């Protein structure tokens, strides 16, 4: 228990910054209009492709016998890819709503 309090007192400024980021992020997200929520989220999902790059770098630098790093890196690549593809699918579906319909 003493190590927890020691860690807390040593990193008090970082903990306050994280708490401030959570409160600020919640306020910003809660004030986004419903109409803008889908395009903003799909764009954010596409930007999160950085996770894929980072996971590939981690997997490339991991030791061959470090199975935990390899498994976590593989899962990060798979989940990051799903996130990016999902972002593009949502964006495509959203843009389809604004296109004029073709007359037969």
Structural class: mainly alpha
Mean pLDDT: 84
Helix content: over 70%
Tally the beta strands.
0
How many structural units, i.e. domains?
2
Largest pleated sheet: none
Shape: flat
**Over all CA atoms, what is the radius of gyration?**
20 Å
Jot down its keywords.
single chain; 104 residues; mainly alpha; 2 domains; 5 helices; flat
Summarize the topology.
Blueprint lengths: L1 H9 L1 H19 L3 H14 L2 H12 L5 H32 L6
Helix pairs in contact: 3-5, 4-5
Quick summary of this structure?
With 104 residues, the protein is mostly helical.
Task: Describe the structure in your own words.
The protein is mainly alpha-helical. It is 83% helix and 0% strand. It has five helices and no strands. α3 packs across α5 and α4 runs antiparallel to α5. The radius of gyration is 20 Å and the shape is flat.
């Amino acid at each position: 228990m003493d190590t927890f309090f020691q860690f807390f007192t040593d990193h008090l400024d970082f903990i306050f910054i994280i708490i401030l980021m959570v409160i600020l992020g919640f306020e910003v997200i809660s004030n986004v209009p419903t109409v803008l929520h889908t395009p903003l989220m799909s764009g954010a999902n596409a930007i999160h492709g950085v996770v894929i790059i980072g996971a590939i770098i981690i997997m490339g630098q991991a030791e061959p016998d470090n199975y935990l790093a390899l498994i976590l890196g593989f899962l990060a690549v798979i989940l990051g890819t799903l996130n990016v593809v999902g972002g593009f699918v949502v964006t495509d579906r959203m843009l389809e709503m604004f296109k004029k319909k073709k007359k037969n």
